[in-house]
Amino acid sequence: MYHVAVVGATGAVGQKMLQVLAELDFPVRQISAYASARSAGKTVQFKGQDVTIQALSEQITEDGIDVALFAAGGTISEQYAPLLAAAGTLVVDNSSAFRMQADIPLVVPEVNPKAIGPDDRLIANPNCSTIQSVVALAPLQQFGLQRINYTTYQAVSGSGQKGIEDLARGSRGEEPVNYPHPIHDNILPHIDVFLPDGYTKEEQKMIDETRKIFRLPELPVSATCVRVPVTNAHSVAINVTFEQETTVEAIREALRQAPGVVLVDDVSQNQYPMPLDASGTDDVYVGRIRQDQSLANTFHIWCVADNIRKGAASNAVQVARQALESSIHS
């Protein structure tokens, strides 16, 4: 049993981490919750009990924490995650601060659990859209990944409570606060900041993280990331080219057997993955599988997942469990 801490416990992902720790029966002996000084003294729920939020400071390294899940943003992670890891705490960080550091594992347990070494104390949680995409693609590595193009349809919960509030504001005819344009009854082809080459940081994350997770640094990957007026659960249209010839049915069969994947692909009955199906679950739903008519050995795959659960909180809890098992069995 472990003393587990959630850093950023007042945010959407932090609160979901507390919920998932309970639901997945993580071996918690003691739970601690940390946030900014302005939230200190407030409470969050864990297994029906109130947990008082503590102000985050360097004192955290002396609090005897075995496992720390970070959901407080890159600046906080950069300041405190290495301190905790150096003190012997297992840290799983949900920010982008450490994802592309060569010596820090970037892990999705269904895809690359062996990336975690027995001595690793700081592990990065990938971007939400990357997580669900690589879960869908991992069982198809047998055909050889040659090229990937993503188009995402990302829910406003990916922006936290501020995004959800902007969607609600728009429904009332009010101006947005979080987004540069209204999201209600609209679509924004813009997530995170624009880079000099015209891609956004969100798109570059998906490109870089996919290559790192699959250990294919030269893999051609592209992405277009779009915000849509959906409250929760991201959708990703994946266009993938394989090195080997395959068929739609062979792809379906590989996905049927894949851990963490639910195949929903019967268009004759209008059955395909939708955000309403995925929201509140930890699975990645895949469907609309068809061969691309314009490129050889190329297929379209539609995947949907809860971005707050599998795309953040649940994956972090699963990573922590995997890391603890790796350490025990080393």
Structural features, described:
With 330 residues, the protein is α/β, with parallel strands linked by helices. It is 28% helix and 25% strand. It is built from eight helices and 13 strands. It has helices spanning 12-23, 74-86, 128-137, 161-171, 201-214, 248-256, 275-278, 309-328, and strands at residues 2-7, 28-35, 43-46, 49-55, 67-70, 90-93, 122-124, 145-154, 221-227, 234-242, 261-263, 284-291, 298-305. The strands form two sheets. The chain has a seven-stranded mixed β-sheet with strand order 3-4-2-1-5-6-7, sandwiched between helices. Strands 9-8-10-13-12-11 form a six-stranded mixed β-sheet. A hairpin with a 2-residue loop joins strand 3 (43-46) and strand 4 (49-55). Helix 1 (12-23) packs across helix 8 and helix 3 packs across helix 8 (309-328). It is globular. The two termini are 18 Å apart. The mean pLDDT is 95.
